[in-house]
Amino acid sequence: MRHSRLLANLAGTTLALCALPAHAVDLVIATVNNGHMIEMQKLTPVFEKAYPDIKLKWVTLEEGTLRQRVTTDIATKGGQFDVITIGLYETPIWSKKGWLKPIATDAAYDVDDLLPAIRTGLSHDGKLFAAPFYGESSMLMYRKDLADRAGFQMPERPTWAQVKALAGKIHDPKAGVYGICLRGKPGWGDNMGPITTLVNTYGGQWFDMQWKPQIDTKPWKDAISFYVDLVKAYGPPGASANSFNENLALFNEGKCGMWVDATIAASFVSDPKQSKVADKVAFAQAPTAVTPKGANWLWSWNLAIPASSTKDDAAQKFIRWATSKEYIQLVARETGWNTVPTGTRKSTYASPEFQKVAGFAEAERKAIDSANPNDSTLPKSPYIGVQFAAIPEFQAIGTSVGQQMSAALTGKVTVDQALKTSQGIAEREMKKAGYYK
Q: How far apart are CA 71 and CA 81, in angstroms?
């Protein structure tokens, strides 16, 4: 009797437990503290309403700290994060190592709507290993009023020689206007972004097909000599300390006649709330020299799933939501078409509402489409990437070379000395890593 009553009680308890709602999955997302990602966090309630069984937990970090934390976690299989924000640099390296799970896309996600250049950069063996949240290339932003006054008609894709000629005509330091602003702050993601595209278009490369560094060569010397002369003659004072944010501030104050940098800047410099010259800005493709190859860089911030994550289903749902066409529409409804993350989908650029508020849309789309991370140099190269080489050793090499280029800009060393030292640094790193003897 007591036995049967115990069984009945257990059965009742089991039924009661089955009736309880399942515990929500806590999805831990590591991301970078930029405007588009902050906006994504604000829309958490929208996602959680659509997926009540998933709760989003955000870890928002400065870019350098994010890279460090995420790289350590994924390399050690720590499992601290379920979704990570990574760049176009890490994705091909980590997917080859088996550190990322493929992104599961369905018909509704419409993977064919992704811009081809971005999709290619995030794929390995035909599979997508990270989904793009926003993408960018590089472009020339310039003061049309100053160009008109100088009697200069800007081509759709100017040469660097034409850019230098215009910089000389509009350079007027007494009036607080400098001919051109370019990054000078050392770092693989700072000055070496635009410098590498300059080297590419001069016919240079980081490594040849045997992985031997090619820094102390004529294309590099021609490119760096041009860069140093241009910025010294027509750049703002203290250019060696300036990167994206510093040049953006200068441009928005009306102090830069031209600026070659990320396409993401176009929405800021043409926004009257941020820019004093918003109504005077025009856009062209990044300048070329001996070849158009590699003149436009390519970058994207992307959402990916570490192989160590045990919450694959929830992570896939979140990533599909945050990188979908519907998400872009959601941001447009909430904060306006001028704030949507760009550089990822064809449908964004096809939107009449977006075209109406984005005078830069056509130039940005052309810039991204023209970038090819698998073929970005005139001589054949063994690496993927336009303004970087997607190998683990590149971060250290790129940053060390960036310091040498900055030293050449300030006159601490000559261009020849900077290139020779950089070549030695790169050779040591590549030999140590076993790329060649």
A: 11
Q: Is 22 exposed, middle or buried (0-12, 13-18, 19+ CB in 10 A)?
A: exposed
On whether the 138-297+380-432 domain is CATH 3.40.190.10, my answer is yes
The whole-angstrom separation of Cα 202 and Cα 140 is 17
* One-letter amino acid for residue 174 of the chain: K
Residue 56 backbone dihedrals phi, psi, to 5 degrees: -90, 130
Category of 305 on φ-ψ map: left (φ > 0), alpha (ψ -120 to 50) or beta: beta
Q: Are strands 25-32 and 258-262 parallel, antiparallel or unpaired?
A: unpaired
* 202 sits in which H/E element: none
Cα 97-68-187 angle, rounded to 5 deg: 100
Q: Integer distance in angstroms from the first to the last C-alpha of the chain?
A: 83
Nearest of 125, 206, 158 to residue 389 by alpha carbon? 206
Using the predicted structure, report yes or no on whether residue 2 has a pLDDT greater than 70.
Answer: no
Q: Count of residues for the chain?
A: 437
Helix (H, G, I), strand (E, B), or coil: what is residue 271? coil
Cα distance between residue 213 and residue 284, in whole Å: 32
List of residues 6+ apart from 212 with CB closer than 8 A: 427, 430, 436
Task: Give the C-alpha separation, 435 to 378, whole Å.
Answer: 22
Q: Per-residue DSSP letters for 280-310?
A: GEEEEEPPBSS-STT-S-EEEEEEEEETT-S
Select from 3.40.190.10, 3.50.30.10, 3.40.50.10490, 3.40.50.150 the CATH code of 20-129+298-357: 3.40.190.10
Nearest to 326 by CA among 56, 27, 106: 106
- The Cα 89–Cα 300 span in angstroms is 9
Tokens describing residue 55:
């709760």
Amino acid of residue 157? R
**Separation CA 184–CA 235 (nearest Å):** 10
Residue range 391-430, pLDDT digits in tens: 999 999 999 999 999 999 999 999 999 999 999 999 999 9
Domain definitions of the chain by residue range: 20-129+298-357, 138-297+380-432
pTM: 0.88
Cβ–Cβ contacts within 10 Å for residue 3, how many?
A: 7
Per-residue model confidence as pLDDT tens digits over 112-147: 999 999 999 999 999 999 999 999 999 999 999 999
Q: Which of 160, 243, 298 is nearest to 409 (CA)?
A: 243
